[in-house]
From TrEMBL:
Protein name: Uncharacterized protein
Lineage: Bacteria, Bacillati, Actinomycetota, Actinomycetes, Pseudonocardiales
Signal as UniProt keyword: yes
Secretion signal span: 1-23
Keyword field: Signal
Gene source species: Kutzneria buriramensis
Length: 148
């Protein structure tokens, strides 16, 4: 009887707990870093010159405390010969601060426009997650560019 009463009380405590207390539960065993990239992808994944696509980033805090990180976005247009294709700009890095709550998630998007004169076949975007000078994670996504 005591076991059943204890289970009922535990269940009631879970139902009555505030939502943020439930969000700070145990982390899946696959989350072993401080902060990790859980996704980086373009939407749409393919554009023609003159089109635009959003690079969508998702982060996860793997710790029980808040974490502040910097996401450094770098991009590079790529052509068949590996150099910068005709009509394509050199892209400056973009730095973005992110504060993640305990075991929390962070989502961000950066939109890239392919100039109409750009002869590239791909835009490669890399996001590096840093805390001070320590690199926590890095991932690259590629946007396909269809030439007429």
């Amino acid at each position: 009887m005591r076991l059943v009463a204890g289970m009922v009380l535990a269940a009631l405590a879970l139902v009555a707990a505030p939502a943020n207390a439930l969000a700070a539960g145990p982390v899946p065993p696959t989350c072993t870093q401080i902060v990790r990239i859980t996704g980086l992808a373009f939407t749409p994944p393919t554009v023609a010159p003159g089109g635009a696509s959003a690079a969508n980033l998702s982060l996860q805090n793997c710790t029980p405390g808040p974490e502040v990180v910097t996401a450094t976005w770098t991009g590079r247009f790529v052509g068949a010969d590996g150099g910068i294709p005709v009509g394509c700009p050199v892209l400056d890095p973009l730095l973005q601060k992110a504060t993640l709550g305990p075991y929390g998630d962070f989502h961000s998007a950066v939109t890239y426009t392919v100039p109409g004169s750009c002869a590239a076949t791909q835009l490669q975007v890399t996001v590096r997650i840093q805390q001070d000078t320590r690199i926590l994670d890095q991932r690259t996504a590629a946007l396909r560019i269809t030439q007429p």
